[in-house]
Amino acid sequence: MKTLxxxxxxxxxxxxTPEDAPQPRAGGAKAAxxxxxxxxxxxxxxxxxxxxxxxxxxxxxxIGAGGKGKAARAGALPKPRxxxxxxxxxxxxxxxxxxxxxxxxxxxxxxxxxxxxVVSAWYLWAKANDQYxxxxxxxxxxxxxxxxSELLGGLSTLVGMTSSSSTDxxxxxxxxxSHDLVERVNQRMDLAExxxxxxxxxxxxxxxxxxxxxxxxxxxxxxxxxxxxxMIDLRVLAFTPEDSHAIAQxxxxxxxxxxxxxxDVAREDALRYARQELDxxxxxxxxxxxxxxxxxxxxxxxxxxxxxxGQVGVVTSLQQQLAEQLxxxxxxxxxxxxxxxxxxxxxxxxxxxREQIDAERLKFGSETPTGEALSEVVGQYESLAVDRQxxxxxxxxxxxxxxxxxAEAVRQSRYLAAYVRPTFAQIAEYPQRMKLxxxxxxxxxxxxxxxxxxxxxxxxxx
Length: 462
Hints:
15 helices, 4-stranded antiparallel beta sheet, 4 strands, about 5% strand
């Protein structure tokens, strides 16, 4: 059992033990010795405090209940928390040293960046031959007047109809990069010889054989085509300004020929159907005229209808004379005696006129030299005349349609408009040495940096 005098001793704060003292660092002997001395001093101070507490407890034994309560409350104070022991502290980083990996990085920089850049610079300035550029620009234009659809308020725009000039420019853009144009230009000049003039320059000189495929690959390197909004711009490279200008002029000439060929094809398509109709109308008219000629030769009549009309006129005239004589005879009978000789002469005249009328009427049913009746001959002639008239009308309409189609084809003619004629270079612009060096250096530096970062990333994982 605890006595009243023991309460102050119990309530005294516990002194830290050597285990509670902070551990000295492994790297410093002086720090460890200083820590041990401080712990000893704290332990001695704790012993003296305990003795003072015991004497004070004996002096307070006579205190009443109030003193006991205060001692009890003093003994209830919490004890201080112990500090957990700390682990060993690692030593500070040592100074960096030159290692083998640093040498490898430096060698990789030399191999990947420095040496290729130096070699490239030496080649560009010492071995690469100068190249001269010839520039050319043109577009396809259409010489056309306002069409009927445009006169109606531009309805062609509303329905989405556009000019065919843009389509022709697209065709020409593909033609410039085609095998056909390379072959045509090569027939004018020896492209392999022109692009092989750079001696000791295996990078920019022509390295292929005599095949068209090799020439087409070199064509893509030396001829650059730029297409923008219906306009075509070209840049042609060669090792002499005369060669680059000649190639550019050949491209312009061949492009003009191709546009003319396209124009001829379009005109031929527009005139084909109109010409077919005209040919048929001409053939029909020839047949009708040939049939009419054969008819006239067979019946020995130029125009049977004219003969019939003449005969009809004769009959009509005779009938008029007959009517006049009948009137005269009637008046004579009314005024003269019955034995008047004028009555007999009038009757004779009337009889002759009637006989002549009958004779003329018989001619309508008479036979022609071929044994056919005149009426049948007239019917055949009228049928042939109708056929000939129809053939002539068809020929007139077909000829008008052909003329209109030809005028429309001429109105829609296309031509090549060169807004930049082939230029003649004064100085060598290519190869662009500074630009090539900047691009090559930047690319190699980026590749080397990425490789170094990958190396250190893999090293840190181990």
